[in-house]
Amino acid sequence: MPYDTPTAPLLAVSGDMLVIAPRTGAPVRRTSTNPYRRLLATPGARAFTVGNLIARLPMGMFSVSAVIMIAGSRGSYALAGAVTATGLAATAVVAPWTARFVDRYGQARIAVPATAIAVLGSLALLLCVHYDAPDWTLFAAYAATATTPNTGGMSRARWAHLHRGDPAALHTANSFEQAADELCFMLGPALAAFLCAALFPEAGTLIGAVLLMTGVLIFAAQRATEPPVAPVTRAGSPLRTRGMPALLAVFLATGAVFGAMEVVTIAHAGGAILALQAGGSCVAGLLYGSLRPAVDIRRRLLWCLAGMAALMSLPLLAASSTDSLLVLAGSLLLAGAATAPTMVTGMTLVQRLTPEGQLNEGMTLSVTALLGGIAAGSATGGWMVEHAGTVTAYVVPGCAAGLALAVAAAGIRVRGNGA
């Protein structure tokens, strides 16, 4: 900076510094070198972040709450799983359309009514379970929750708008958002299970719905940071963008890593140990965001995927070589360390590939691919557990990670070095 001279007097103030500009003699505040502190110092950022975190926490609560609530009332985990799978399938169809409307008409205008419909669906599910309604009503009610907007995508879109032209700040923002995802999906299931056990079976769904609506209202109220509405055009889906199909295939395979690892680990050692994988990913995401990223983002994605493929072999090695849960816990912690950097880099590439004015739709497509992969990975992992045992089943997430690397390498080789 022009006022950073060796003779300029400095005064430390709450982690920031006041320096005297030599040309004007006026004090100028220079922010701390902590990238996350600089990020949250952006005007309006803390307010929309608080609202988004409140809205995002229920994303890790709803499916667990639904399974506990339905299985406890109807005595069938098969029914509970079928209902939640129906909701996932409905979300895969509806979410990209919701995101397209968000891009076209604005976050506040679409997110609030879409959330209200989803909350009514959750409450309808609760009432249907409580009053022993026919099974088909559970499917219909849970399908209505598919209108839930992609709150993480909307938050990333705000960061992209606020820090357009600043790749370093956007890298930190994406890392922060990924760490928030990991934190919410680590705390959400535990909170849901606690509420359902400590209060009543429907408590997880009820409180999750209240948190979702409250968070979205707070988030939508921050109009100053909302990205401008995209002009109405005849632009097609971001799927038609060169490189996007291959990238979505990478997200699909990465989702299979997550889904398979979750099912296999629950079958092998119980669900509580999974928090270590999410915790490792959360910490790795924050550390990754504090680093200066390499310029070539496609090569960076390849390195992240290669690291994930290598580290996903650790749980298999741990489970096959020892019965120690401590060793398995350490391997899951290390395996999780590769997932956040991979997701951060992938989301950054989505932002670069998606045409202007379609950012929410592009990121929602990536989340939809991820969810589809989670469903496929869960099914494959469950089949392997049943037919080959839990130890052998750890091959599935490793193979899925290898597939993600292969698809990314093939896609990059076809596209070349262009952006």
UniProtKB/TrEMBL annotation:
Regions crossing the membrane: 53-71, 78-98, 110-129, 206-225, 246-266, 272-289, 301-319, 325-350, 362-385, 391-412
Protein name per the record: MFS transporter
Record Gene3D superfamilies: MFS general substrate transporter like domains
Record flagged with keyword Transmembrane: yes
Coiled-coil intervals: none
Alphabetized UniProt keyword annotations: Membrane, Transmembrane, Transmembrane helix
InterPro entries named in the record: MFS, MFS_trans_sf
Native organism: Streptomyces yanii
UniProt entry tagged with the keyword Membrane: yes
